[in-house]
Amino acid sequence: MNFLMDIVVSGLHLMLLVQDSLPPVPEMEPIFEPESVAFSPETPAWYVLGGVLLTILSLGLYRVVKNFHKNAYRREALKSLSHLEKPGTQADPASVINEIRILIKQCAIAGYGRSRVAPLYGEEWLQFLETTGKNTPFTHHKELIEKGNMHPLMESNSDLASLVKIAKKWIRSHA
Fold this sequence. Notes:
mainly alpha
């Protein structure tokens, strides 16, 4: 404890010695402040850089808006599919399958053009859907898509729910 007191006392003596060596306040010279720094760019390169950055931001915003409008058909199709899935909607399974067929065909025409999509049907149509979507196995539901309400497994809603899920996945992921 005495050791700590000795350190504190010697520290105080040292502070008093330093204070005695400093000149008194009235004898100090005035402080000179530097000129204020201008925050405007002084060289033309900053204007060029600003123009380039503004152009890049404008092009990026243009692409975002363009993609948003380009994918409007996807949002509408997904909204229609979500209305079919609602628990309160007790739609006829055949009409649900027909609505899914129509939505997928409309999306394919909007995304790939009428001349490429319109002639496709049957196995060729299902292969097109599988190759253009990511992990969308439509051929597993071939009979359900082609025969609709005549399909013997139409009693279970799990096949229909799986088909709706695959259709949503294709609408989101097709290129």
